[in-house]
Amino acid sequence: MIASLDVGAAYRELREPIDAAMRRVLESGWFVLGPEVEAFEEEFACLCGTTEAVGVGSGLDALTLVLRALEIGRGDEVLVPSNTFVATWLAVSAVGARPVPVEPDVATHNVTADAVAGAIGPRTRAVVCVHLYGRLCETRELRALCDEHGIALVEDAAQAHGARNEDGRAGALGHAAAFSFYPAKNLGALGDGGAVTTSDPLLADRVRLLRNYGSRRRYEFEAAGVNSRLDPLQAAVLRVKLTVLDEWNERRRALAERYRAQLAGVPGIALPAPSGADHVHHLFVVRCERRDELRDELRGAGVDAQIHYPIAPHRSGAYAELDLDLPVADRLASEVLTLPLGPHLDEEDADVVIGAVRRLRAGAAV
Ligand SMILES: *Cc1c(COP(=O)(O)O)cnc(C)c1O
């Protein structure tokens, strides 16, 4: 089976430095926050091009803590894409605000500044833009729009570590950004983890406070915080992974280009829009007719094609009762198919996938 992702292979390639990094933490006796987390925060901020990075427990927590630090809560609205991983919406709900969905552009899967502009209302306090599948949104336009309205642009960069455009890297393109280090992400830990990046020192300070029980000094609590701290063992692993992020993103890019070249013109398959450094191909997602049929046939042919995501957030148990009408999100949920892609897939694997898709779709009606 050509797996969609091989996180074990990522460890095996870096076994020696990862083992050494973990041993360093084990022998230091420092198991919560401390120098390893601080070193990672500094290195990650440097990569993103921000002055601050704050390590937290997960991507969901990173989003939630940013919104809390922005003092967004009950009565406020936050614009979110209708087509995203459900965590984007859940973070807004977690602070008591209302997620207001914006339908994406089908070609890029991302929201446009025009669509966002049309959705801004008197209660809108922030926009969470998601760089879905690893492709940056049009951040310059979104940032200008948010600045004009005096609201915050928060990047959900959980799928876009390292992606860059003319203004910089993911994490530095809004007022603040949230990252996840879930193992399958482009920068993945060996467990859960996340980070907030920003160049606003006050916002960073607030997130630092909130992630640690609202405490700066032991047993002094300034705010009702939470316990959401990046684990030093994960920080040590992430410091190793950070050194290969660009290289591994290049491998993803090469495979994506191969797919794009070899699958062009296959009937009933719409390829992702062209991209460059702005896309780090967390996932390679095509849109197709009779999607479920193709997925099953591919599995029969030894290709593990997945669906990101089969159920749009507004159809999930968390939001179904709102009964929202979001036809683009519904359409995408029924058409998208993810082909295997990762830094540990080689060209031969990609060619097996390409061969299977071409064979299964040969002669299919357009
Ligand atoms: C993975 C992901 C998250 C959540 O990250 P966790 O670390 O799993 O909490 C949020 N948003 C998007 C777009 C993601 O892909």
Automatic annotation (TrEMBL):
The modification N6-(pyridoxal phosphate)lysine is found at K185. Its EC number is 2.6.1.106. The active site is at K185 (proton acceptor). Keywords: Aminotransferase, Pyridoxal phosphate, Transferase. One of its GO terms (molecular function) is pyridoxal phosphate binding. CDD domains: AHBA_syn (cd00616). It holds the Pfam family DegT_DnrJ_EryC1. One of its GO terms (biological process) is polysaccharide biosynthetic process. Belongs to the DegT/DnrJ/EryC1 family. This is dTDP-3-amino-3,4,6-trideoxy-alpha-D-glucose transaminase.
